[in-house]
Structure formats: C-alpha cells, structure tokens
Amino acid sequence: MADEVGWKGGEMSAAVTPMSTASSVKFVCSFWAGAFLLLTVDVGMLLAQSPLSTIRGTVLDETRAVVPGVDISVTNVTTNVLVRSVVSNDDGNFEVPDLQPGTYRLRAELSGFQTFVADSIVLGSAQTRRIDVLLAIGEATEEVTVEAGAGVITTESGSITTGVSGEVYKDAPLVDIYPGPLSMLSTLPGVQGNGWNVSISGQTTSQISDAVDGIANDRTGAQGANMNMYEEVTVTTVNNTADQSRVASFNAISKSGSNTFHGELWFKHVNSAVNARDFFEPEKTPFLLHEWQAEASGPIFRNKTFFYGAWFSERFPKGSFQRATAPTSRMRQGDFSQLSQTLRDPLTGQPFPANVIPTQRLNPTAQRVQELYIPEANLGGADTLTNNLGFDFPYPDDKFKTDIISYRIDHQLTDNNTLSFRHHFNNVPYVLAQELPAFSWTRKRSYSRAVLSNTHVFSSALVNTFRFGWNGNYMIDGEQVDGWSPLQGQEAVAATGLEGVNPRGLSAQGFPNIDISGLSSLRTTAGGVRDDHFDFQWDNSLTWAIDRHVLKFGAQVFKYNDFDALVGDGTFGEFDFDGSFTGIGYADFLLGLPNSSTRLDPLTPREQSQYELGLFVMDTFKVTPQLTLDYGVRWDYFSAPTYKDGLQYSWDPATGNVVVPEPALSAVSPLYSPNINVVTGQVVPESDLGNIRPRLGVAYRFASDWVLRGGYGAFTERIEYFSRAEGGGPFEISETYFNRIENGQPLFAFPNPFPSTLAAAAIPSQNVNGYPLKTSHGTIHQFNVSLERQIGQLGLRGSYIGSRSTDLNYSLNINKPQPSLEPFDDSRRPFPQFVNTSVVREDGAASYNALQLEANRRAGAIVFNAHYTLASNLANFRNLENPYDVTRHWANDDYTPRHRAVVTTTFELPWGRGRTYLSDASALVDQLIGGWRLMTMSYFATGPHFSPSFSGSDPSNTNTFGGLPDRIGDGNLPRGERTVDRWFDPSAFVEPPPGRFGNSAPNALVGPGMNVHHLSLAKNFYVRQRVSATLTLAASNIFNHPHFQNPRDDISTPNPGELFEGIPDWMAEKHGSRKLQAKLRIGW
Fold first, then answer.
1. Most buried residue, 111, 489, 646, 850, by most Cβ within 10 Å?
2. Which residues lie below 8 Å from residue 67, measured CB to CB, with a gap of 6+?
3. Which residues have CB under 8 Å from 1024's CB, separation 6+?
4. CATH code, domain carrying 21
5. Euclidean distance between the first and final Cα of the chain, in Å?
6. CA–CA distance, 913 with 922 (Å, rounded to integer)
7. Are 716 and 245 contacting, i.e. CB atoms less than 8 angstroms apart?
8. What is the predicted pLDDT for the residue at 220?
9. How far is CA 382 from CA 207, 377, 388, in A?
10. 392-443 pLDDT per residue, tens
11. Tens digit of pLDDT for each residue in 1031-1075?
12. What percent of the chain has pLDDT over 90?
C-alpha cells in the first residue's frame, strides 16, 4: 500500500528540476543491462515476499521550492528506537526503506527552519507511504506537528494492496473454530473463499504465496495460523512487484514487544443452546467450544531488547450429527421396484422380473459387507431414497482440541543492526467421522515455524535485510487418539472374506473402499505417516537509494523435503459400482460385480526433495513528484523433484515405454505386467531456465488526493510441488482392472474381484503418468488500471483488473479411443497394455476480467469498507473427457462468482465520556453507556459454478462411464422457481446418444449464492489504571439465512437438482447456520 501526507502534489511540479531526458535514458538502459547481468550469474539467494515497508517524501519550503540537506530521522514510537537517519537529496527527495510494520514518528530539521514532525505514521506490511515535509522559516526549537495516521488511498504504486489488523479481529463478528486469517481476508476486495483456502483476483491457491514474517508458508497452510498472534495481514491482490514470485500474496506480521509491558487474557465460549439448527438436521446437535489465550509483551532491556509470547488453547467437548444416503429396506433385499430405472440382468441383458434380483443371485460377500458396514435407513419413510440415514458421532466435524505457543524476540544489536527471531508451534489431533457410522479416522498433526531476520543499515542510502526460516508439518493418520481407535484395513478384509488384496499383510487404518453410485461410500482414509516435511528458506535483499532512484536487488533459495510412510488407498482394495451391469449401482454391488477393481502393493516409506531459486532487480524511479515508476525483472528457477532412493519413472507416449534410471532397473517388481516394456533413460526432467519476467508499475498523482495508477506483470506459473516425480509404476505395483461380461459370465466378482486366470490377467491393469522431459512453465500476464480519489476521510477506487494466462500445464488421460459407435474393446486403446495413461500438456489458457469498485473510511467514529466486483474467469482445459478435443472448449471457473459485494463497518457508539453525547457523564454512568462498539460484515454473491453429470453408461464407447450430459435447455431456473428440491432443471440435460461425449460445457450451472450478515457488539469496561476489560457478543449469520452447497448434479440418480447439504462452519465466509459467541478480554 502507498499513500500520502502533505498537500496538493500538483503545486510542487514547478519547483522540481527533473533529471534530463538523456540522463534518464542512460540510467534506464544501465538498469536493464545490470538486470541482465544479475539474472545470468550464479547468486546464492533470492528475495521472497518482503514484509518491510518504506517512508518516502519531498521537502519543500513555503515557496514550494525543494530543500536539500534536511536531516530526516525516523523513530519507532512503541520501542522509542531511532531506526533511521537520512538526508534529503538535491531534489529534496528522501527515502527510508526496509522498515518493520508499525507506528513511526518522522522528524525533519534544518537550521533556519522550524522543526517538522509527522507523528503516528502507521505503516502496514509492504506499504509505501508518502510523507511530504513543508518547512517554515523560524527557530529550530519551534515544532510544527501533523498527525499522519493511517493512509486512505494509495499514491505510490501500481499494485493493489490491502489488509486487516489483528486489533480488528479481536472483536470481529466471526464465530470461527480456526483462528487463522482466511475469514478476515475474505472480506477484502479481490479475495474470496475457496474451500479450505482463498482465491485472489481469479488466481488459484497454487499461484498465491502465503507467508508469515516474509517466510513462505505455502505448504503448511493457514490452518496452523492464528490471527490473534498477528499484528496484521497484508494482501497484494494485483500486480506484485519484482521482489515477489507469485501473482498474488498475503503476508502475516507477528506481534512484537515494545518499551511498555502489555498483557491480555481472554476466554471465548460457543454453545449450541443459543445457536440455530442446521437446515437439514432433524434436531439441533449439541456443540461446545471453549477457547483461551494468554499473551504478554514488553522490554527485556529498555530501548534495546523486546519480547512477545502467547499461548492459545481450544476444546470442543461435544460431538456432531452426520447425514448419509443408505439403501432402503427393500433395496437391501434386492428389490428395486421403488426406482424408475429398469433393472437389467447382466448375464442376459434382459430385465429382472418386477425389478427384483432373485435371492439366490445375491452375492454372499456383498451381503456380508452389507450386514457389517451398511446400516438400515432411519430417516424419512420407506420410500425416502436420499438423506435417509442420520447418526450421532462423539466428536465434532473437525478438530476437537488445539494448543498453540508462539514467541518473538527483537534485539537492537547496534544503532545500525537489528535482529529478530520468532517461533510458532501448534498441536492439533483429530477424530473424524466418514460417510457411514462404521467408518472413522484419526490424525495427529503438529506444525513448527520459525524465522530469524537481520536488518543492517550500512548508510542512510544502503540497507540490507537477511532472513532464514523454516516450516515443518507432521501428520500421521490412524494412530489411537483420545482413546479412539479407527477401523483397520486388514481386519475388515478378514471380516468380509475379500481375496486378492494386501499380499504382505500390512496393518494400518483403512478399508476395502467401496463407491456405489447414488449412495454414501464405504471408505476410510488411508493410514500411516501422511506428511513429514521441513521446508527451509534463505533470502536477502539490498536496497540502495541513489538520486531519484531506489534500487533493490535480491536473491532467495527454498529447499523442500517430503517424507511419508503411507499405506495408501488401494492396499486393501478399491471397488467402484456405478450401475454398468444392471443400470443401478447398488444392484451391481449386491451381485458382487464392480465396474473396476484396484489393488496396491505400496512402496513405503519414501522421501523426496525439491529446490526453488530466483533473482530479481527493481528500481523505483521518482520521475517527478507526481510520477513514480516501479520497474523490474525477475527470474525464477524450479528444480525437478527427486526421490532419495532413486526409484522413479516416467512414461514416453511416443513409444509407450516405461522409462526408469539405469541404477533402478534391478528394482522393477517381478510382478509388473510382462506386456509393458521397461527401458532405461532420462527420468528427471530438465528445468526451465527461461523464466525471466518483467514487472512495471506506474502511479501519477494529479494531486495528493487524486491518483491514476496501474501496472503490468508477467509471472511464472508454479507447478504443484513434487508433481513431476512418479515413484510408483514398476516399483510400487498398483493394478486397476475393468470388468465386463464375456460369454455370459463376468471377468471377476466378489469375493475375489480380480482376474483369476492367465488369460484374464493379460487385460490391462496398470496406470502410468508421463510428463515432458524439458519442463516449460506457463506465463500469467496480469494488469490493472485504477483511479483513486480521497474526499475528506473517504477513499474511493475504481479498477479494471485483468489477466491472460498462456501455456499452462495440466494433465489428462489420453488412453481413450476416438468416440464412435463401435463397442469399446481394449484393443481400441492407443496403448492397449495400459488402463489410463496420463500426460502433461502445456497448451492451457485462462482469461480473467473484472471491474472492482471500492469505498473506504479508515478513521473516525465510523469506519467502513465496501466493495463490489463484477468478474469473468474462464479457462480452456476444464473439459478433459475427450483428449482429442480439449482446448476448444472454454468454461467458467468453479469458485469465481459473477457478482460479489462485501461491506464491513465499525461504529463507535456516540455516547459516554469523550463522545458526542453525555461526554461529561459520571464514572458510573460511563461504565454503563460508554465504550460500546458495533461491527458488521455483510456478503452478497451469486453462486459458484458446477457441472451437470450422468452415470452408469458409456455412450462414447471409450470406457468412460458417465460424465457430461447433452444440454438441450438452459438448466438454470429463474430465481423464483428455485427450491430446495429442484435447484436446477434436470430435464435440460439428457444422456448423450451413442457414439460421442456430451455437449454440455463444464460448470454450466450456477449454485446457491450468498446473502449473509455477521454482527458483534463490544463493550469496554474500565477496571483500574492501565487495566480494562472488553466483553464481545458476536453472531455469524445473524438472520440465519440458509446457505447450501451445490445440489445433486447426477441426472441418472434419484432427485437430481436437490439441495442436500448445508455450508460447513469452516468455510471462510462463515455462512453456515447462525452461531453466537461470547468473549471476555482483560488487558493491561
């Protein structure tokens, strides 16, 4: 962010002598030459997102002439440390870079002039503020003081940056079991919830940087974060400068100590007794949340060393209510007369009489699974086909407790050298329900994050900042947690009598996972060490102010390490019943006829590593006092991931060969399919060395309260970590078989749902993945034009924001024949020796366009932010059904709504001491009526996009059962016709005719939108000197407006278009059912 304190910028131009055109051209040419040199040498570090900020300005006298040689000193108000002294240059300009976020005082002194003081300068993370100085003739002992406060508009940058403070979060109207920043971030322009994450200006999580104190936190996620321990979180939504790699970013700044001792204790309570019932619950599920935090900060040595420490804990002592879809009593007996679909005998192709399977045809293994693991329906009537099962689970839907410890030490080594260290640790266990009562899973998870940073001032014009940090995450699934032991896969295999799985007798949390179309799945999350990673980061930046230029050079290295010991899905078998044989999924199950069967012999444990490196150089050029240019260039390098044991493979679609490294050839499993050719060769792809991306930002101030700004930036697409290393294949045997009827008999059936003869074993069983041996990253071009105006304390902004992404990477299965009328046979596959062959293509494209309007007021009794976004976000690689025709079809992004508006307000109620009314009230009266504060948050948005589907048949004859249907109407109902039972019109979609895929575009339908309001009321109480208490009552979704997830989209199953599930409480915008909370804080 950038803003200005002073006077009309337009009045200064006549007094400033800009650099000559020839000199400017010479400097810019020299800059780009230096940039090229920097990006072609081996430098050991590169800068990540920097949380450091800048104060800049121009010194003028009363005649508006520039004043050089003025002593400028900047002091941190909270620590009373003089952090920097600079002198205005010949053009009267000064620059104070690399400042920690906080509150500062600027002092300007020159003999013959009165001393100028700008007090209470609030600097956010990565913010540039203009503080212009006006010197009046007089004695230096006389002082002229102005209150700078917080900035209202941005005047110095082409980027769009915003943020939220930890102080605001304390009383925010959010009932949130995860105290991370995502809920607050979703109130900001350009930011919206995206499942467990957020998307920013149309960019997905993989293109967004998540950092804490400048150290990337991309792989640990925001679940381990705690907004209570942050001073603020700053978000750059558009046009990051060259010192940042990702298209968008957010950075949290941890709290720190000051020269004054401070402390706070608080307790928060949420109780379902005062909450609303979830829309689909037959009765309210008991729920309790107890949350505590204690924090303290202050000096260890005054003006020298400072500390901050905090402990946070929460407990959820109540359980949850789960809903599922189970077979009806008649369906359990093989009677499907309740359904409209015709039940076919797969052995004859003829209908079963009366839609009933004869008892003697029911598979004994399937009946045993049904008896042990599939409960009777208990909700609705005998003919209720969906949401007909409910059960209580003794643990909540998410974690049941959390403990977090965080501390930070800041030390002033010398007048020119500052050192800071922060460490954060959380421990979070889980016991979680799955879709049916017999299934649950456990997880133990812990996080550890730390950063050590050093800022060294070599001179008033030269500052260096170095940071080292790490992020650790440990997750193990399936161990006993809180006395709860989950289902073990090997025990389930023995109980059901299934054969052909888990040949080594491995023991872990798991189940022979069974998916049945139209019903809830029988599934347990795989057990073992899911993730044990430690990521390290080193970065350094050097800032050099010279004349009207501020140069910044930087370098950074990331090292990512992954370890896992997971007994993966498929170890105990995976079976899909989709109605391919009878037309009804559960009937296929009762006959013991899966459409596909998968088994895995896992290779575990495994360890991987990957590196990321980059360099940048940038220049801020103050062309005139009105015009500022930010230009730079960045180079990013991403190494290919590698396995420590060297057992990885690739697949070559040109030859169909599986490729392994020469030393790994002897490790190929003797059980690997003999009809697959395994050769040696290059496996690890070459990295892309051409990721050189320019950045440009322009800001022109017509006056101090009127600015036109914009920018352009090219960004390197980040490919998901560890996605270009295949460690299974011929080393970890995973077999997938597709069933079919031949000569009136299936290839396989329960209890041994795998080929039993050598002839049958020759059918394809292996999936392989391939990728280019020379990696090419896509390019994301982002741009914006913004007009901002300050009217009093009101800031207004209108922006056009756009991006064009080209050459994006995506993967798809290419082992499909051309759709035709010829029935599918394995011989028609391009690679008949395989089941699925996934390859990476590099021709993806995306287009984002948005109009964004914002109004904000940041100071006074009424503070608010209101913004509206009209957006279109399209991509050409969302329909991957037909590998012969992908990029011709453009489709909407899932999570980007067409319209979105958010309004947040804070209102200091105007009565009591120091307020408009009853300002002279007695202490007792003031305790009752004074110190009230009201906060609101309101979200309005159209719904997310989702796709219609069908299931149970393969009209394209490509072994693709289900997918996108044909679209014969709009499908989206008018607003007045949408109901819980019929959100969209299923008759607008039909199963495609034989010989082709469906013609409906992906994401052709619009789901339920958002209309939710949160409110909190806080009251401050005076206790004694320096001690106060605050009671906050908060309500999320105060009007209890129901919000739903997308409806059933499968037109082949009962009740398509039906809304069946509410929004969970962990979604960022908190638009589940109404929740109330009370919080008491005591501070000193």
1. 489
2. 59, 60, 61, 88, 92, 110, 113, 135
3. none
4. 2.60.40.10
5. 31
6. 8
7. yes
8. 74
9. 49, 8, 9
10. 999 998 899 999 999 999 999 998 999 999 999 999 999 999 999 999 999 9
11. 999 999 999 999 999 999 999 988 999 999 888 877 778 788 999
12. 71
Q: Which residue has the tokens 């009806």?
A: 328
**DSSP-derived secondary structure letter, 676:** S
**Quick check: is 480 in a domain?**
no
Residue 40, number of CB atoms within 10 A of its CB: 10
The residue to which tokens 């690679």 are assigned: 831
> Closest Cα partner for 1040 from 275, 341, 266, 406?
275
Q: Copy the structure tokens of residue 1043.
A: 């919000």
d(CA 997, CA 965): 8
Containing 332, the helix (H) or strand (E) segment is helix 329-332
Residue 801 resides in a domain: no
Return the structure tokens found at 708.
């036109």
Q: How confident is the model at residue 10 (pLDDT cuts 50, 70, 90)?
A: very low
> Would you report the helix, strand and coil content of the chain in percent, each value rounded to 5?
10, 45, 45
pTM of the entire structure?
A: 0.84
Kindly give the interhelix angle for 489-496 and 364-373, rounded to the nearest 10 degrees: 130
Helices (H), 992-1052: none
Q: Which of 523, 512, 499, 508 is nearest to 567 (CA)?
A: 508
Structural domain contains residue 34: yes
Instruction: For residue 522, give the DSSP letter.
Output: B
In this structure, what token pair is assigned to residue 948?
Answer: 């219609």
| Mean pLDDT for the stretch of residues 897-905 | 97
Per-residue pLDDT at 523: 95
384/561 Cα distance (integer angstroms) = 50
Q: How many structural domains are present in the chain?
A: 1
Cβ pair 973, 984 in contact under 8 A = yes
Whole-angstrom distance, CA of residue 282 vs CA of residue 509: 31
Domain assignment present for residue 444? The answer is no
SS3 annotation, 904-953: EEEEECCECCCCCECCCCCHHHHHHHCCEEEEEEEEEECCCEECCEECCC
12 CB neighbour count, 10 Å cutoff: 23
Q: Identify whether the C-beta of residue 1080 lies closer than 8 Å to the C-beta of residue 1029.
A: yes
At residue 891's C-alpha, the angle toward residues 888 and 897, to 5°, is 160
Q: Can you give the three-state secondary structure of 15-31, one letter per residue?
A: HCCCCCHHHHHHHHHHH
Residue 1017, CB-side half-sphere exposure with 13 Å CA sphere: 7
Q: What amino acid is encoded at 888 in this protein?
A: R
Domain span including residue 71:
2-152
Beta bridge partners of 2: 128
| CA separation for the pair 1003, 882 (Å, rounded) | 16
DSSP code of residue 747: S
pLDDT at 228 over 80: yes
Q: Is the dihedral of CA 344, 350, 356, 358 positive or negative?
A: negative
Which tens digit of pLDDT belongs to each residue from 727-742?
989 999 888 889 999 8
Contacts of residue 696, Cβ cutoff 8 Å, sequence gap at least 6: 158, 629, 630, 631, 711, 712, 713
Calculate the CA 593 to chain-centre distance. 40
Residue 15 has pLDDT above 50, yes or no: no
Residues in the chain: 1084
Question: Tokens 């503070």 — which residue?
Answer: 863
- Longest CA–CA span in the chain (Å) reads 107
SS3 846: strand
Encode pLDDT of 525-571 as tens digits. Answer: 999 998 888 899 999 999 998 988 999 999 999 999 999 999 999 99
Bridge partners for 446 per DSSP: 427, 474
- Cα distance between residue 708 and residue 788, in whole Å: 6
Structure tokens at 507: 């023991």
Please choose, from the candidates 495, 486, 530, 492, the residue with its C-alpha nearest in 3D space to the C-alpha of residue 511.
Answer: 492
DSSP structure string for 257-306 = --SS-EEEEEEEEEEGGGSPPPTT-SSPPP-EEEEEEEEEEEEEETTTEE
Q: Tokens 């690890």: give the residue.
A: 684
